[in-house]
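Note to self: the last two entries modelled the partners one at a time, which told us nothing about the interface. This time every component goes in together.
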Amino acid sequence: MTSSSGEPLIWPFKRTDPLDPPPEYASLRADSPAVDVCLWNGDDAVLLTKFDDIRLAFQSPNFSADTTKPGFPFVNATAEASKKGQKAMMTRLDPPRHNEHRRMLMKYFTPKTIESHRPFVRELVEQLLIRVDTSDRAVDIVSELAFEMPVRLIFSILGMQMSESDFFLGRIQVAFSTEVTPQESAGAHHDIIEYCERLIVEREAAPGDDLISELVINQLQPGHLSREELQYMLLMILMGGIDTSANMTSLGVLTFLRNPDQLDLLRKDPSLVPGAIEELLRFLSIVHFTAMRLSTGETEFSTRTVPAGQRIIAPLGAANRDPDAFPNPDKFDITRSARSHLGFGSGVHQCLGQAMARMELQELFAELFRRFPKMELAVPEEDLVFHDSLVYALESLPVFLHGKSIEGER
Amino acid sequence: MKVHVDQHRCMGSGNCVDIASRVFSQREDDGISEVRPGDVPADAYEDVRQAAAVCPVLAIKILEDDTR
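The predicted structure of the combined assembly is written out below.
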């Protein structure tokens, strides 16, 4: 497949609007929904753009997520450096070992367990919003709110000290980045693994009533998990549970500021909050670069059959903007029924922390705009900086919580 | 309506409980989904259908659907 100019199609494509997936997905979906593309290193891959095909790639046992397999696709050299080393991590394991790992963790992330953390998050959101409530200056949603919420929840569940959050967040940013060098990315992963090892050692010496202590006692000590596997399990929880919720928050706030009609609906009817969160997950699809698989058997997609050994790119954002799955897909509409979106992926690897993400976002979005209905951007939208990290990211989001008019009256 | 969860396939995503908690629950020790005992209430049929549709590992089978 080549573009109209005769050049090969090189994935990933660039976004033209910061909140929309690259426009190529829509045109390819119409003309050639399973198309040959070229990756950064010259490798070929099949790019899927239809909802049904992408969901099939996640649900079928014919696709491996094991990044150590020869020929596994990566978005670029930096992602290869960071993800190839994750040989013991659940997200990169195939069944049956994957399922054994996942069953060790599932009880901590069920809707029922997560519901028991809701009062903590409600209180946390209130405290954070009281702390930032000022009309004297612009408030940065990213650093003052979006990261604070998931970091404090995860650190509390894992029994970690908030005094270490700055070091940790700094390393996570580098580990997720696709813009640093491969060496920097691998270094950040190494530091996080060392940090996780220290958390394990501390709990071996003095177990508490936190999730890590339980995994040490119930899984590591009886030999169900190797030491390396536990290190990577903690890395996965920490990396999967913070940047994701944080960027959903900041990009979600921006989405509402850009769609004042939808913000009005939300403020007038708080019962719309859960559906609005599903729509944000669909609309933003922030996990935009990690949906890669290597086929291990022949699979029939809607328009072509793919043999074993084929690299597959299955972008969540392409599935979630398929008009056959979601009518008028580029409209942000909090009243639509978006619950079937693939924002958390699908298949055995579907997000373990999805109930947690839903609960955090529901609590935050229910309260944020109720308290600050006049919130406005404090900078021109063109000045906002977005990062094509493994999880799509907004660098900062300065807002006037009480609107610019109050700022002007001072 | 009769509904069944394939507990070998189940990955404990919790979608079924999130959507239809009157019909599904998750085992305390490992998060595997179970169908609650008793008849499925008629006003939960639509939720059960949605739960089956969004189950990421297609572990929910609706065996009999009397009102569709």
